[in-house]
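Posting for a labmate who doesn't have an account.
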Amino acid sequence: MATSRIVIENCAIATVDAHDTEYASGHVVVAGNRIESVGAGPAPSGTAEVVRRVDGTGHLLTPGLVNTHHHFYQWITRGLATDHNLFDWLVALYPTWARIDEPMVRAAAGGSLAMMARGGVTTAMDHHYVHPRGSGDLSGAIIGAAARTGIRFTLARGSMDLGVSDGGLPPDFAVESLDGALAATEETIDAHHDASFGAMTRIAVAPCSPFSVSTELMRRGAELARRKGVRLHTHGSETVEEERFCKERFGMGPTEYFESTGWLGSDVWMAHCVHMNDSDIAAFARTGTGVAHCPSSNARLAAGIARVPDLLAAGVPVGLGVDGTASNESGELHTELRNTLLVNRLGAHGERAMTARQALRLGTYGGAQVLGRAEEIGSIEAGKLADLVLWRMDTLAHASIADPVAALVLGAAAPVTLSLVDGRAVVEDNHLTTVDEDGLARATRSEARRLARIAADG
């Protein structure tokens, strides 16, 4: 059977390939779910089996955005504890989060995914670590929401086994036993992980953080991930309080602790990594450990400014993350493109910290590297998967900015005229094609109110 093709032409193109190739006016041909060709000018005449031709005049075409760190369930607890640092914020919100159940998580995941997808995200991940007793199939609810939204997805199956009575932060009834957490994680891998090229769903092993997880769960979690051939994810070096906690409890800093438990390697990525010294950065570079940079959340919780220019200079893979929407209420990744450039220029490197094109690279190819999918997604190259976003740049918001990449990164959020995932349209004319946005808004509002009532009743 002949392969159907989509042609997008007459648009500016930022390929984000190894040479940062760009075209002021170019074309992309999509055949099935793959990019067949990309180049300057219109598509080759005689291209066969074209089922759709898109005139991209006034647009910029980029790879789809890749989100490398999130907590979907937090969508229904936005706007709370707005003036707290991380530890106080966690203490304030854990009692509420400990009451979540399957319908709440399904609604929250739907809202989180929809917000990202309509803002240009084509690959997302969720680090879900709160599994209250009797709460239902939370992993299945999240994975189902991603399938309905139609974007590529990694579930980092999280866990906590260190409750308040053992010196951790979460309530005891919101944590799992060591063996229970490991067994449930392995079951999730067996049921849902797809290791094939172009997979829509993958699973990672993801104990939450040093202050909510036992050392044994960290060690055995790493062993499980490597036995099953999946990636590893956790929070690391987010705050000075975390560093103090690690030194008091383990007698070493976070990076040393992670290395001692098997948590450095090219199959590992960590969220935040704000407070890292030169030796920490060298250890990440030496082992190929990746970083999910979440500038908005780091600012919201006053965690600090990550040393992203130094991480990149050392060769550390870095992608961008929304983080949970209880610490980044916007819930979309364009904000992170802009803030990674702006926030890092407030650091030691000043105006030389980052360029608009580096920010775009972090949000696309860098994220693909961090998730272990750089051979499949993250740049516009023949043979890669057709995960593409066509941004409208000729409206009032951007029309006077000659450089479309600078307009995208530094300007207001650009409308998405078309977003393709695996060659299928997920967004058309700034609206989702796969789910009912108004219905999701009603569902998430209802579940947020139900959670607030349950939490208030204790």
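Reply:
Got it, the structure tokens are right above this. The first helix runs from residue 86 to 97.
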